[in-house]
Amino acid sequence: MAPRPLRFRANRRVLGRLVMMGLLGAGLMGLAPSAFASHTGLLFGASTRLVVTMSEYKFSPSKITLQAGQSVDLVIENKGILSHAFMVYPKPATPYKGVGDWWEYVMAKTYFQNTGEIMLHNRGEFALDVTRLASVAVEPGKVVTLTFTPTKRGTFEIGCQLSTGGAGTHFKAGMGGLFVVK
Question: Given pLDDT bands bounded at 50, 70 and 90, which one contains residue 69?
């Protein structure tokens, strides 16, 4: 008598788990970076997309206007030859003199705190999911996207507080602007 062939009967729950494990594995290997989507819009697309270009020593546009409660993909491109940082914070009553003082102020007062989830991503390179962000450093020729939902209304300052050497900063050289949330 010949041996009977084995039959595999998979129920839907087991099959579903196998499919989910396969998708998760593909995402971990970088084959499907969008598998790490969140409610901020990486997978589904934010309601607004705005490109901000950085170069020596300016942001373009220098005024960013957003609507509170509407998700945004803020695409930050560095078209300059130097590294730059994107920071958003309330304008201080009196400007700080040293770079270290600026960094302390921005870290304490950054717009990107207590606003909910912030997705920081560059397709194919990295994705971070954070709830507080003081600065986004972007190397020359690179593009980084911030996906978030602005919640705090008001007018804030944007700036690059990196040192130009000596006592100067990129901000003092003209790399500043406004971040308005209506």
Answer: very high
Beta strand spans in 23-171 (E):
48-55, 58-60, 63-66, 72-78, 84-89, 112-122, 126-133, 136-138, 143-148, 154-159, 163-165, 168-169
What are the domain boundaries of the chain?
37-181
The CATH superfamily label for domain 37-181 reads: Cupredoxins -  blue copper proteins (2.60.40.420)
Total-model pTM: 0.71
pLDDT tens, position by position, 111-143? 888 878 888 777 777 677 777 778 888 899 999
Bridge-partner residues for 74, per DSSP? 50, 146
3-class SS of residue 106:
helix
* Cβ atoms 115, 150 nearer than 8 A: yes
pLDDT of the residue at 15: 41
The residue count for the chain: 182
